[in-house]
Amino acid sequence: MQIRLLNTDQFYVPSRCATCGERFTPEAVLALAYSQAGVALGTICDDCLHAGRATLAQRAHGYAARLRQHVDTLERVAEEVFDVLPLETAPGDDRACVGNGT
Fold first, then answer.
1. Which residue of 19, 26, 69, 96 is surrounded by the most CB atoms within 10 Å?
2. Where are the beta strands (DSSP E) in the chain?
3. What per-residue string of b and e applies to 12-46 under the rule 16 or more CB within 10 Å gives b?
4. 53 neighbors 27 (Cβ within 8 angstroms)
5. Domain ranges, ordered by start, for the chain
6. How far apart are CA 47 and CA 50, in angstroms?
7. Are 5 and 31 in contact (CB under 8 A)?
């Protein structure tokens, strides 16, 4: 992995770190991760940027394992029958009176 630093004065919204998966808000200097083939992987949080190679690799492996677990769950769910249920309103919701004519 290659990390490139980009000095910018643009405003950024909260992101998810490409190596550890934690949410963070990028600062004026962005740390961008690229694969050895030059594919952009995303922004990196300050903790990962300063973690050192071994810790960064460990964090990336952990995040990849969590993503694989999530993919496994999504694939199991995708095999299920999807039922779209009608819209429900919460008890005590004033909008319920408008919808049922009362």
1. 19
2. 2-7, 15-16, 23-24, 29-34, 40-43
3. eeebebbbbbeebebeeebbbbeeeeeeeeebbbe
4. no
5. 2-78
6. 5
7. yes
